[in-house]
Amino acid sequence: MGAALAAFLAVGLFGVRGYVDNFLMYRGFAPPREAAFVKHPGTLEKVFVRSPALGGRSQETYVYLPPGYSSQPQRRYPVLYLLHGFPGRPLAFITTVQLGVLEDALTARHRAQPLILVMPFGSTGTYSDKEWADGATPGNGWGTFVTRDLVRYVDTHYRAAPTRAARGIAGLSEGGYGAINLALQHPDEFSVVESWSGYAKPDPLRSIFGAKLQLLSRNDPALRLPRVAPTLRRLGTYFWFYSGTEDHFRAQNRRFARELTKLRVRNHFFASFGGHNWALWRKNAAAAYETAAEKLRA
Asked: pTM for the full model?
């Protein structure tokens, strides 16, 4: 009886653990599944990018190569860099937002051009906050890791079109802030900028921006935008971003959209019914992908 009970409990605990693991990976949604009409799906690679900005650290990154990548060796592709939120990890773009199967379906139906999707891990741990910014301490150049080290790696190791016109940056939640912040700091690097439920004012974190918050103003998009707006207009940078109707960042994003419009920087902002969650990001994923695919040029 005791052995039977122990076996029963063991099976039960295994089932609970499996459920928890599944929920953490897919956030309660069904696992990604290719549409029946997709005959040649894309492929996911995990690489480690050595970054001088991070003190020589090799940083985990995922790259989704589009359908047809291996069979068209002469073709070059636009690239969309995707920055995760906090707490978070990059693979959520594939497992939860399901951008991989979404890209496969959109390209199979000829609704959008194929893109290389690059998803870096922007921290030292799931619960370590770095804000995708260059921090005040050595070896914490998380912004430079993306805009210099990662871009160089992708341009060198993949058939990425190595031009600004073919390069976009997007992110969800904190990653949306990171996308806007890095695009404003490096206006010659990205032509398309997307923020999914992001924000335009940095959190005053002394662990990142210094004991006296000396780096806060440098990483404040609202302060930087007026200075770089002429460059953004000249280059034709396009900002596409949204907030949930129940998201407390909505008002902040509306103000940022008004400022972009006032400064004649191309943009589209909208409120989408919902909160600050995976359901909202999944709902708008197709529109986000199609926008990037439409605007980027290889």
From this structure: 0.91
H helix count then E strand count, the chain: 11, 8
Domain segments of the chain: what residues?
1-31, 37-295
Which amino acid type is present at position 51? S
DSSP of 26-78: HTTSPPP---TT-SS--EEEEEEEEEGGGTTEEEEEEEEEPTTTTT-TT--B-
For 288, which DSSP code?
Answer: H
To the nearest whole number, what is the mean pLDDT of the chain? 93
Q: Which CATH architecture has domain 37-295?
A: 3-Layer(aba) Sandwich (3.40)
Q: Which residues pair with 270 in a beta bridge?
A: 242
- Partnered with residue 272 across adjacent β-strands are 244
Per-residue CA distances from 239 to 13, 246, 248 (Å):
47, 22, 20
What gap in Å lies between CA 41 and CA 182, rounded to an integer? 31
The model's pLDDT over 36-85, given as tens digits with 9 standing for 90+, comes to 999 999 999 999 999 999 999 999 999 999 999 999 999 999 999 999 99
In 3D space, the residue among 204, 242, 200 whose CA is nearest the CA of residue 221 turns out to be 200
CA angle 135, 140, 141 (to 5 degrees): 80
Listing from the earlier edge strand, what are the strands of the sheet with 79-83?
Answer: 43-51, 57-65, 116-120, 79-83, 167-172, 192-196, 238-244, 267-272
Q: Categorise residue 37: left if φ over 0, alpha if ψ from -120 to 50, beta otherwise.
A: alpha
CA distances from 118 to 93, 224, 258 (A): 10, 26, 30
Classify residue 190 by its DSSP letter: -
